[in-house]
Amino acid sequence: MAQDRQDAPLVRCIVAVSRTVADLDRTETFYRDALGFAAVAPPEPVPEPILAALGLAGTDARRLRMRLGGQMLAFLAFDPPGTPYPLAARANDPVFQHVAIPVRAMEPAAARLVAHHPAAISTHGPQALPPASGGVTAFKFRDPDGHPVELIHFPGGAPAARWQDAPGLFLGIDHSALAVTDLERALAVFRDALGFRVVQRGLNRGEAQARLDGLPDPEVDVLALEPAASRTLHLELLHYRRPAAPPSPPPYGPRDRATSRLVLAVRDLDAAADALDGAGCPVRRTGGVAYAEGPDCHGLLLVPAA
């Protein structure tokens, strides 16, 4: 059921992006030393309501939460682990979900990053996109488990203004971008069911975009969507018109390293779960949280807004 436009939006903010990893120590070292994150606390057991919502009640699992500025990543490690990140997955693959980290200056940020030898997605280093594609300079790479990450430098305007008071070289998390194969289906979930606002829409293509994505001759719809209470971190939808997305892989479960989850703070958990159910995303509810697989199996973990 589409959200009634007279109601307040169901999603207040994106609390965190959650990723499945193999080794929390390795993950902490990389995100701390290469990207400036700090652990919120030592690794801890994953709360049982979250495991139950994921369909993994009783599983041995630990969580590491790391913060950069006002935004957070939550890493989950399971024993036994699931499958590795698929080596053949590219930027147009439905499994693709990156987090974008704005930087004060690209050259020193990239230099600090490459000292830790990440696998690059982009070719020929950071890429300056034309004004029609936002005019940003960006570089995409993979963390130790294969999850994609983007460094991004905003040349000015409202995006840069949002980050001007953030300290340091790495400023926070601007957005998480999901590759989707059916744009209208994704909008039906995020905009119509959950109440995200579409605030920007563009079509990116050209040589710089090809180098940024590591793809031949891409043409990609890029939509920015904001939750009700926060402009960062926000959501981007990436819909590749070309190259065509590869065939859907076998489904991944939450313990597999290909999986990520948006952690969404909602004003009414039951209403949000009902909205997702009505949009064709079956929801598992337990212990005050709920979980669904959204478009192209991107995970959505619902928690009550504070």
TrEMBL record:
Any Pfam family hit: Glyoxalase
Name used for this protein in its record: Glyoxalase
Record InterPro entries: Glyas_Bleomycin-R_OHBP_Dase, Glyas_Fos-R_dOase_dom, MMCE/EMCE_epimerase, VOC_core
Sequence ranges assigned to domain VOC in this UniProt record: 13-154, 172-306
GO terms under biological process: L-methylmalonyl-CoA metabolic process
Taxonomic lineage of the native organism: Bacteria, Pseudomonadati, Pseudomonadota, Alphaproteobacteria, Hyphomicrobiales
UniProtKB keywords: Metal-binding
GO molecular function, one term: metal ion binding
Superkingdom to which the source organism belongs: Bacteria
